Request: fold
Amino acid sequence: MPRATDPGSPPTRERILDEAERLIAARGVYGFTLRDIAAPLRMRAPAIYKHYKSRDDVLVGVSRRFIALLAAQFEFGSESKPSEALRAALNAFAKMMMEHPAYVRLALVDFATPGGGMEYVKLAAGGSFQENFTGGPLASMHARLRGFLRAGARSGDFRRVDATDLYRFLKAALLIRLVFPDDALLLRQPSAGELRRVQRWLWDIARRHLAANRAPAV
Reply:
């Protein structure tokens, strides 16, 4: 890690968030202090207050990074078949989560928090889970997925499904896959082969769920 005085190093605000992400991935959302962030950056914990008001404010900053990456998901390409476009989008989604293990832990804690999520994530996303479907930075991502699935159903490539159901089904499956029965993939950089295996696994779930000839649930 470059020293704070290195002219090529990122701004201090960003390096604080980088270190917070590393600690969340290794120890969990509640497993570190501002001192833990400061020590590897060769600064004292009070110096962090020049950039963030509190530890909670640091977590809001990490959450904003997460929301920005999440909002960019499900940008469907121009592949000839809807199935190919969806598979490419799911591959990108899995890659994003595996490259940012802190966001996996953040999302799991967020889901388990009463009232529609943690305050850090609510502040970053502009509201609760329910509000994110129609407003805030995640609304366009959900709208893209809804439109794509409607088009796929009209063309006969997919059976008709609710986009919200599919999103929570696939996101929940991916999160659990990355932490159960162990979280080894969050504690180191996954290999290219490990990433491909998870991507194939997620696509297989989506493909089976969306199969046009699948009988509707009773």
Q: What stands out?
A: The chain has a mean pLDDT of 90. Residues 65-210 form a domain with the Tetracycline Repressor; domain 2 fold (CATH 1.10.357). The chain has ten helices and no strands.
